Amino acid sequence: MNIIDALLSKGIKYLQKKQKERARNKKKKKAVKKKIKAVVVKRVVKKKNQKKLAGRREPPKKKVVKKKTGKILAQKEKSKKKAPAVKIAKVKEGSKGILVGEITHFFSKIQVVVIKVKRGDISAGDQIHIKGKQTDFIQKIDSLQIESVDVKKAKKGQLAGLKVKKPAREGDQVFKL
């Protein structure tokens, strides 16, 4: 029995050693992949920025002359704060909608979607436009539910469920008309 026990313990130690080596190799591979990914992302961003800048032409700088001395002073550029961009979609009938959220789930058997409200709010009675790669339809919201409870309004950051007329897909955008 002593020989069998000794062989088993040696075999177990060998297997444990191999597992540790595999774990170390996996960590090394992940680290290398992260470094490669970071380099690739930097290169892609750099190329995109170069393409953007290549098409632009810098406006000529205006010169400001001081009246008494006649010296030319450089004009200071003021930074303008831009309002956050709001996506506006042109709907079939020519009306416009404001991007309100995105579909996170679609349950095909019961024809229900879950919408993540990202901007503003949606309420029962609103008309929405659901648009995606293969989806494009308009419908009125009959009822809204948040965690299986009927509500009249869903605000920014909430997940709301509603029944739809046609199939939709995850990632489709929801516009409020």
Order of helices and strands: HEEEEEEEEEEEEE
- General form: flat
Largest sheet: 7 strands, antiparallel
Tally of DSSP helical segments: 1
User: What percentage of amino acids are in beta strands?
Assistant: 25-35%
CATH fold label of the largest domain:
Elongation Factor Tu (Ef-tu), domain 3
The tally of structural domains comes to 2
Radius of gyration: 30 Å
Give the assembly state of these chains: single chain
Low-confidence stretches: 74-79
CATH H-level superfamily title of the largest domain: Translation factors
CATH architecture of the largest domain: Beta Barrel
Total number of β-strand segments?
13
What does this structure look like?
With 177 residues, the protein is an alpha+beta fold. The chain has two domains: 1-56; 88-176, Translation factors (Elongation Factor Tu (Ef-tu), domain 3, Beta Barrel), CATH 2.40.30. The chain is built from one helix and 13 strands; from the N terminus they run αβββββββββββββ. The protein has one helix spanning 2-55, and strands at 63-65, 72-74, 88-90, 96-107, 112-117, 121-123, 127-131, 136-140, 144-146, 149-151, 153-155, 159-163, 173-176. Strands 3, 4, 5, 7, 8, 12 and 13 form a seven-stranded antiparallel sheet that branches. The protein has a two-stranded antiparallel ribbon with strand order 1-2. Strands 6-11 form a two-stranded antiparallel ribbon. β3 (88-90) and β4 form a beta hairpin. The longest helix has 54 residues, at 2-55. The chain is flat. The protein starts with a helix and ends with a strand. Residues 74-79 have low confidence and may be disordered.
